[in-house]
Design goal:
With about 400 residues, the protein is an alpha+beta fold. About 25% of the residues lie in helices and about 25% in strands.
Length: about 400
């Protein structure tokens, strides 16, 4: 190693643990949205309070000094971009982010599953490090021998172990057919892998059948997810389905409107969640009426530590109304809502605009959803293709 790194579990606060990132295949993105897409539950756009004018003379003073004394080129565009990012970062909220045009384009690609080419891994922050959470079948990482639990240490020789999962995922991406050198740490030892990037097909929802049980897996909530699952549900009767397993493990959220479409299959016009906001007051969002075709169907929801945001809205509501048994591990606990504001030059501002609560007024932020039945799935289970959580769901 170029640095002495003690590979021990690092204690990180939940607020700093950004588990959900733009990952190389299946993980969705932090909940956030556009008012016009009901992305966070506010519709129509209500408009925020107009802030008082701000005296920017101190910033001008810094710029004047730099432009007249710095021994090098001064790029006004870069300085303005840096000032925007710094202003947002000063809030100290890991979920409120300024994205320049390039990062903004990547963000929207991730949201819609257009992750391009990579090596086929889910990654997230666990025990203080960005780790491999799962490798996808028939993709480069699994073929090369990368395992769940591996710490991602280097990408193409560059140390990345101190970066966020978003930043690591960006470095893992690349053109189809390009080569990547990946160094991971497993049991305190470095292991090197060389792989060729492949196009990753990332659907947001799919269904498998186990006798009379439909197993619906959701990898994220994009703008088509709700409609896809509603179409699946309409086919259940013809297939003799009378039980449903909804797998939300590793689902980091997405469009709240998609979660609303999904919950409408179980909840008929009921309160879905409440958003509480300093600028917009309290807003209650309900499910659609007349679409609850799964209302009386026995349902189990699978969750884990990377189930977050819109996924927690779904799990929390179904739990509150006793419409499903929640099985697995405690969810991430991201109970804040972001809204997306498109800025000039293609930049995007993602802002925390509200806190959300379950129908029974439970705050999930920092707490998560506690399963009705707790079942752990270890890295060893994942690598050996064992799934005790799914086994328990089928048993129930």
């Amino acid at each position: 190693m170029s640095k002495k790194v003690e590979w021990k579990e690092k204690k990180t606060s939940l607020g700093n643990a950004i588990i959900i990132g733009a990952v190389m295949a299946v993980i969705g993105v932090l909940i956030g949205a556009n008012w016009n897409n009901i992305f966070g539950g506010f519709s129509p756009y209500l408009g925020g309070k107009v802030s008082a004018s701000v005296d920017w003379s101190e910033l001008n003073e810094v710029y004047d000094k730099l432009s007249t004394t710095y021994n090098g080129e001064v790029s006004v565009e870069k300085m303005i971009d840096g000032a925007k990012a710094g202003m947002v970062e000063a809030l100290g909220d890991v979920y409120t982010v300024y994205m320049d045009a390039e990062k903004s384009a990547d963000f929207y690609d991730d949201l819609h599953g257009n992750v391009g080419s990579g090596i086929g891994v889910e990654m997230g922050l666990r025990d203080g490090y960005v780790r491999v959470l799962r490798t996808l079948p028939d993709n480069p990482a699994r073929k090369a021998g990368v395992l769940a639990g591996d710490i991602i240490y280097k990408v193409d020789g560059e140390e990345v172990w101190q970066l966020s999962s978003d930043e690591v995922a960006t470095k893992v991406r690349g053109e189809t057919g390009s080569e990547i050198a990946l160094t991971v740490v497993r049991d305190g030892k470095e292991l090197d892998f060389t792989m060729t990037r492949e196009a990753i097909n990332n659907v947001s929802a799919y269904v498998e059948y186990d006798g009379s049980t439909a197993i619906v897996t959701l990898t994220r909530f994009d703008d088509n997810t709700g409609k896809k699952v509603q179409e699946m549900a309409k086919e259940f009767a013809g297939k003799g389905v009378n039980k449903v397993i909804l797998d939300l493990r590793g689902n980091g959220g997405g469009y709240v409107s998609a979660a609303q479409d999904l919950l409408s299959l179980w909840l008929d016009g009921k309160k879905m969640y409440v958003q509480k906001s300093l600028h917009y007051g309290n807003v209650t969002t309900s499910t659609a009426s007349g679409k609850a075709i799964l209302s009386g169907m026995k349902t189990v929801v699978l969750v884990n530590g990377t189930t977050a945001s819109a996924s927690e809205i779904v799990a929390g509501a179904l739990q509150d109304y006793d419409k499903a048994t929640i099985v697995g591990e405690k969810t991430y606990g991201k109970g804040v809502v972001q809204s997306l504001f498109n800025l000039s030059d293609g930049a995007t501002l993602k802002v925390t605009t509200a806190d959300w609560y379950t129908p029974l007024d439970r705050s999930i932020n920092g707490e998560g959803i506690t399963p009705d039945i707790e079942v752990e799935r270890s890295y060893e289970d994942i690598n050996k293709m064992r799934d005790p959580q799914m086994d328990k769901a089928k048993e129930l």
